[in-house]
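From the methods appendix. Each design record in this collection lists the tokenized structure first, followed by the designed amino acid sequence. Records were kept in a plain field format so they could be parsed without special tools. The example shown here is representative of the layout used throughout.

RECORD:
FOLD TOKENS (385 positions):
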């Protein structure tokens, strides 16, 4: 049997001011093409299906289309929620979906969800573990000693009565670590609800009874501990730190017990994300311009701040997302010891120093008035100041 592992679709996400609906639709169509080309029997979706708890109309429409197309092809779907998803919204209609072989576990209810997938004489047990917190698991397993995420997940698995002699597959959305190091983060993972510390990490060895573990939450594709425990990564680049990621989707061939083959199939975005660095004149020189429709993060090395740099850049690269600087001024600021810098100093002094560091000249009174107005609106400066 062949399985396709995807995760962190983040349907409905934007990139800066740019809507990614077309890019995500293109990506989902590509996944359907891979399903057909490789004869995939089931798709494992490892959470963060949506980017927001209340998804947009476009996001729900995309998921509906994707699931319908898989159902038409008689491809089974096994899906869990991630920390970005709303349990209730993702779980809505799950009973009806099951008639079309779409199985969803959006909220842990005290029992690890299991379905047996059969293909001819072959079969495998597929377990679904949505994003959980230790506090949720304590509610259902009060007798278990649970002080961390690792304890919580182990308690769930221990209570599930998993038959280790069978072929077992797990779909989960958690932060899993290897033997000696954490997985490589790519910057766009939302870890605010699960800040990466000792308490939040889950050891990959707790999944030893599974032949394959389809993980979601980390956007860089990678294995964790052993090759059968892996993050598929997000199918699109969602942050500057992912610019060098080669996005792919794993196709897993499940043979006999313990016989797993994994083939990463490359994904091709409608618009790539690239990081350009140099002087603006060189970057926008016609002989250096390639793929102008790509999403661009630009780092300018010009010593002078360029007025309306974004407008200038977007005339050549219309999908420029962000522009920053790397020059002697910014490097000098990075080396400044800011401890105690505000001690007994007025707002005007602080802003004046910052302006001189950035621009090499004095701030005008009109500009200072603007800064004071903004500071008051932000609540960091009182009217009397």
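DESIGN:
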């Amino acid at each position: 049997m062949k399985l396709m592992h995807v995760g962190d679709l983040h349907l409905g996400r934007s990139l800066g001011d740019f809507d990614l609906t077309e890019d995500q639709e293109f990506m989902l169509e590509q996944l359907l093409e891979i399903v057909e080309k490789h004869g995939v029997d089931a798709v494992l979706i490892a959470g963060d299906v949506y980017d927001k708890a209340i998804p947009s109309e476009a996001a729900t429409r995309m998921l509906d289309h994707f699931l319908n197309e898989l159902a038409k092809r008689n491809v089974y779907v096994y899906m869990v929620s991630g920390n970005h998803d709303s349990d209730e919204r993702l779980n809505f209609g799950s009973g009806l979906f099951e008639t079309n072989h779409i199985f969803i576990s959006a909220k842990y209810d005290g029992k690890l969800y299991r379905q047996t997938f059969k293909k001819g004489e072959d079969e495998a047990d597929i377990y679904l573990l949505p994003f959980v917190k230790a506090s949720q698991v304590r509610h259902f397993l009060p007798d278990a000693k649970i002080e961390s995420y690792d304890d919580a997940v182990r308690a769930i698995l221990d209570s599930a009565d998993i038959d280790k002699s069978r072929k077992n597959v797990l779909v989960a959305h958690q932060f899993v670590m290897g033997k000696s190091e954490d997985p490589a983060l790519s910057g766009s993972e939302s870890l605010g609800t699960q800040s990466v510390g000792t308490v939040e990490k889950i050891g990959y060895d707790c999944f030893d009874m599974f032949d394959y573990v389809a993980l979601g939450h980390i956007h860089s594709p990678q294995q964790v501990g052993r090759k059968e425990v892996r993050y598929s990564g997000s199918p699109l680049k969602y942050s500057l730190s992912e610019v060098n990621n080669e996005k792919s989707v794993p196709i897993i061939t499940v043979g006999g017990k313990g016989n797993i083959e994994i083939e990463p199939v490359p994904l091709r975005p409608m618009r790539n994300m690239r990081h350009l660095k140099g002087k603006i004149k060189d970057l926008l020189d016609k002989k250096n311009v390639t793929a102008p429709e790509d999403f661009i993060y630009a780092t300018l090395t010009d010593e002078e701040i360029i007025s309306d740099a974004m407008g200038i850049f977007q005339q050549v690269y219309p999908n420029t997302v962000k522009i920053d600087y790397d020059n002697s001024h910014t490097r000098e600021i990075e080396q400044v010891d800011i401890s105690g810098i505000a001690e007994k100093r007025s707002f005007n002094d602080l802003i004046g120093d910052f302006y001189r560091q950035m621009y090499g000249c004095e701030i005008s009174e009109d500009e200072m008035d603007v800064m004071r107005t903004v500071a008051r609106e932000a609540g960091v400066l009182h009217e009397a100041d």
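APPENDIX NOTE: Confidence is low (pLDDT under 50) at residues 190-199.
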